[in-house]
Amino acid sequence: MIRRTEAIVVASHNWRETSKVLTFYTRHFGKVKAIAKGVRRDKSQFGSSLELFTHLHLIFYERDNRDLQIVGQASTEESFQEMREDLRRLSYGCYLGELVDKGVRGKEESQDLFKLLLGAFHLFKNGYDLELTTRLFELRFLELLGYKPHLHRCVSCRRKIVDSSYSPGGQLRLSSSLGGSLCPDCHLRDREATPLSPAALSLMMYLQGIDLSKLNRLKVSPRSRQELKSVLYDYLLFRLEKRPKSLDFLEKNLQ
User: Fold this and answer.
1) CATH T-level fold of 2-79
2) DSSP β-bridge partners for residue 20
3) Average pLDDT value for residue range 177-192
4) Which residues touch 95 (CB under 8 Å, ≥6 apart)?
5) Residue 140 · residue 146 · CB < 8 Å
6) Domain 112-255, CATH among 1.20.1440, 1.20.1070, 2.170.120, 1.10.3470
7) Could you give phi then psi for residue 56, rounded to 5 degrees?
8) How far apart are CA 201 and CA 180, in angstroms?
9) pLDDT tens digits along 195-225
10) What is the pLDDT of residues 87-102, one digit of tens each?
């Protein structure tokens, strides 16, 4: 069956001598893995349209009983070459692509996820804050997968987190297994929950609702950045059940 759709290249691996296996996230068919035959030849019909991160118009041939589909035609809408030529943007882009690749397990279509990924790549391209863009993407990505952290009320007792009647000396925590924040009176309900400062919690709440285009107006201290990254990594890794390989490179080389 011939399929036509917009797509973003989220992963790419060489296959045999002249071909590649590509992972696309598409606007209409969810995640698609496909072989582009002959794409590595000097005079390939695909040109540079199948480079990593490229937003393109894709035609592929699909069979229901085949894990790898066949790329028929591809034409570039936007190349995102700037991301491939800068180590930091390349690394963060690979991380977002791997989150999509590992987090989306079926072919479920989500135009919202397609727009979220494309929007994040535009922010990377245009020089927006890479870390905060990534944190916002992680939160929205979790929401679209059905794992949105519930932050405004305690996931155990359901009281508002801002309630002033909590016992003194308690601590807020974020529970990956319970799916949200635990108030000071309930923080021991999950002893593996991650400690969470009020500042980091407020930042997470804000990022859950902010528009992508307003992200560059946000000023965040190094301490809050580090805490937010740690909290969200714990939550994501619990949900994904497998650590993204690109995360190791980010932590060792770009932090």
Assistant:
1) OB fold (Dihydrolipoamide Acetyltransferase, E2P) (2.40.50)
2) 14, 36
3) 91
4) 134, 244, 246, 247, 250
5) no
6) 1.20.1440
7) -145, 165
8) 11
9) 988 889 999 999 998 888 888 888 899 999 9
10) 999 999 999 999 999 8
